[in-house]
């Protein structure tokens, strides 16, 4: 819960790190319920703050150059947790459901609302073709900190089932106008490079170092989970945009390596 977090200290320490000062970050021990000795954090060129409440507090949120929220709807969350916990922990589906339901009130009250303040949201929904296939959305605030990508046209990619559909549309996100780019289904992995080239050529606003950078990055991670659906594609787009923001802030050229 937020009351267990020292957000005043968090905001101050994030501000200090941005100005090049080291801080001693508190460490909460989940096993004992007590605090361990603090950890020395040195400032770096890129700092990533992740967890349950990175953009909950206004002071802490104001220190971020970019706020990203991963939004997984309950049906997808349940399917993923069943897949993991039944296989790895020996749980039943009912135990998985009880565990999710137990955490849901706090999640709904304290975690989920943060997506309203994110600059960009990566949202996972069940595919129109049904689970386990996914519909993955890149929700971009208009005139926000995330440099927007758009599609020249909607795409329909055939091949192995279920195929992939890419489209773009404007929407409202908690009172803010957004542009959504979504991918539903999966590309044909036997024709992965060809289909990715078609997708890449259809994206405007992609800060590529070459006309094949997105395709080459995806192909190099072909065996990684999610490379066949919008997970890999849109996470790679976000990574390229993070690099773009870094270069804009620092005036330095960065690589994807």
Automatic annotation (TrEMBL):
Catalytic activity, as annotated: D-ribulose 5-phosphate + ATP = D-ribulose 1,5-bisphosphate + ADP + H(+)
Phosphoribulokinase/uridine kinase domain location: 2-124
Signal peptide interval: none
Domain of life the protein comes from: Eukaryota
Keywords attached to this entry: ATP-binding, Calvin cycle, Coiled coil, Kinase, Nucleotide-binding, Photosynthesis, Transferase
Coiled-coil ranges from the UniProt annotation: 182-209
Gene3D superfamilies according to UniProt: P-loop containing nucleotide triphosphate hydrolases (3.40.50.300)
A GO biological-process term: reductive pentose-phosphate cycle
Species this chain originates from: Symbiodinium natans
Species classification: Eukaryota, Sar, Alveolata, Dinophyceae, Suessiales
Similarity comment: Belongs to the phosphoribulokinase family.
GO molecular function: ATP binding; phosphoribulokinase activity
Annotated metabolic or biological route of this protein: Carbohydrate biosynthesis; Calvin cycle
The keyword Kinase is annotated on this UniProt entry: yes
Record-given protein name: Phosphoribulokinase
EC code(s) of this entry: 2.7.1.19
């Amino acid at each position: 819960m937020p009351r267990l977090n020292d957000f005043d200290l968090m905001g101050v320490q994030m501000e200090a790190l941005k100005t090049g000062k080291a801080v001693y970050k508190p460490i909460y021990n989940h096993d004992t319920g007590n605090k361990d000795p603090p950890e020395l954090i040195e400032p770096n060129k890129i700092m990533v703050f992740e967890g349950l409440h990175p953009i909950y507090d206004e002071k802490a949120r104001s220190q971020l150059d970019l706020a990203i929220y991963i939004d997984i709807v309950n049906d997808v969350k349940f399917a993923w947790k069943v897949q993991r916990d039944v296989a790895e922990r020996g749980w039943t589906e009912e135990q998985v459901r009880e565990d999710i339901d137990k955490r849901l009130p706090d999640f709904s009250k304290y975690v989920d609302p943060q997506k309203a303040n994110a600059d960009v949201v990566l949202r996972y929904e069940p595919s129109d073709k049904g689970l386990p296939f996914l519909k993955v959305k890149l929700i971009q605030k208009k005139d926000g900190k995330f440099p927007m990508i758009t599609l020249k046209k909607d795409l329909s990619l055939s091949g192995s089932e279920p195929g992939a559909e890419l489209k773009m549309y404007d929407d409202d996100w908690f009172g803010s106008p957004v542009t959504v780019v979504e991918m539903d289904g999966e590309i044909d992995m036997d024709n992965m490079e060809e289909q990715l080239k078609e997708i890449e050529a259809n994206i405007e606003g992609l800060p590529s170092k070459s006309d094949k950078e997105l395709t080459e990055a995806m192909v190099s991670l072909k065996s990684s989970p999610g490379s066949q659906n919008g997970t890999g594609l849109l996470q790679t787009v976000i990574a390229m945009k993070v690099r773009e923001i870094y270069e804009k802030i620092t005036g330095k050229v960065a690589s994807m390596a």
